[in-house]
Design a protein that fits this description.
By secondary structure, this protein is an alpha/beta fold. It has a domain at 30-168 and 207-297: 3-Layer(aba) Sandwich (Rossmann fold), CATH 3.40.50.150. The protein is 26% helix and 21% strand. The protein has nine helices and 15 strands. It has an eight-stranded mixed sheet with strand order 1-13-12-2-5-7-6-11. A five-stranded mixed sheet has the order 9-10-8-15-14. The protein has a two-stranded antiparallel sheet with strand order 3-4. Helix 1 crosses helix 8. It is globular and about 65 Å long. The chain starts with 18 loop residues before the first helix and ends in an 11-residue tail after the last helix. Residues 1-5 and 330-338 have low confidence and may be disordered.
Length: 338
């Protein structure tokens, strides 16, 4: 996976591994041989088949669970193939592991399960057997191959569930900063529910279950890896900020290249990732090391999520804030007065 068939472009920022890095990060991976306490595995990546270890994970230990399982498609993950099956068979496959989650989740836990249009109905049917289904988020994948005999598929679903009626949801933490298309004003000519600054006209809006502000990681983004179904860090940031508190335990059953663990670490949560493929697990460990140096999440800054294609405005706002902070000492006299 880390030896491309052709040389990467100079500006390609895809995270890869050298043989030396694989040897190094491999030593960090955990493998379980029996039941464990949370303290033994917290903030680690377990490189193992999730079906092998689910019964060994500690009870009532997880605050937020994110699951991005293989969709019901023929797909290769670094040579490991998942074969599509009938909808009823896929439903049975989902039930094999969803039925075991209640034991490891706290009574206040939230669960998010990803799927596409083919698998979404099966996820719904199985999830409602064990959890309270709260909502279905549909997010725009933005890119995808065109289709001549069908509608182009450019969306995916995420089912939001909870263990009980007592659950965490911080709506103020996931507001979206959008461009103002219709700048309405009040009777005095002042902006109505929007602000104008050097960056332009923006409005802070509350989140809905339709997400159109995400960008699939690609070669020029510093979070990109060669994992074929990698989710954006921004997507996980929305879920983690909305449905957990600092210090909570966030678990990912199909961790892939570690996006959930990385974002949990950046947002001061504890994490636990489970991934069967060693190469992907090593990439996750490399990304976790990088997160210790750079905690930024593309598209999220100053406590809000920015609309897509606003990177220039985000940079401008950061420059303005830095200049403002640099000038602050000059606003005060030696006696502390303004």
């Amino acid at each position: 996976m880390n030896k491309p068939l052709h040389e990467r472009a100079p500006r390609n920022r895809t995270i890869t591994l050298t043989p030396a890095e694989i040897d190094s990060y491999r030593t960090r991976l955990r493998q379980l041989s029996g039941p464990v306490a949370l303290a033994e595995i917290i903030n680690q990546t377990i490189c193992q088949d999730v079906f092998e270890i689910l019964d060994w994970l500690p009870e009532s230990s997880v605050d937020l669970l994110f699951a991005d399982p293989p969709y019901n498609l023929d797909k290769s993950f670094n040579g490991r193939v998942f074969s599509g099956m009938s909808l009823s068979e896929y439903e049975q496959w989902l039930d094999l592991w969803l039925s075991k989650l209640a034991r490891i989740l706290k009574p206040t836990a939230s669960i998010y399960i990803c799927g596409d249009w083919r698998s979404s109905s099966a996820i719904h049917r199985v999830a409602e057997k064990y959890f309270i289904v709260r909502n279905r988020i549909t997010w725009e994948r933005e890119k995808g191959r065109g289709a001549k005999a069908n509608w182009k598929n450019c969306s995916e679903d995420i089912w939001h569930c909870t263990m009980s009626e007592n659950y965490v949801f911080h709506v103020e933490n996931v507001r979206l900063k959008r461009h103002v298309v219709a700048p309405y004003t009040d009777e005095n000519g002042s902006p109505k529910d929007w602000d104008e600054s050097q960056e332009g006209r923006f409005r802070l809006t509350y989140p809905s279950n339709i997400w159109t502000d995400l960008t699939i990681p690609f070669w020029s983004m510093p979070e990109n890896t060669d994992h074929p179904t990698q989710k954006p860090e921004k997507l996980l940031a929305k879920i983690i900020l909305a449905s957990s508190n600092e210090g909570d335990v966030v678990m990912d059953l199909f961790s892939g290249s570690g996006t959930t663990s990385v974002v949990a670490k950046k947002l001061n949560r504890n994490y636990l990732g489970i991934e069967i493929d060693e190469t992907y697990a090593c990439i996750a460990e490399k990304r976790l090391s990088m997160a210790a140096i750079d905690e930024s999440i593309q598209g999220y800054s100053d406590g809000v999520f920015w609309d897509r294609n606003t990177l220039a405005e985000q940079k401008k706002e950061r420059r303005v804030r830095r200049r403002s902070n640099d000038l602050q000492p000059e606003l005060f006299s030696e006696k502390g007065g303004v």
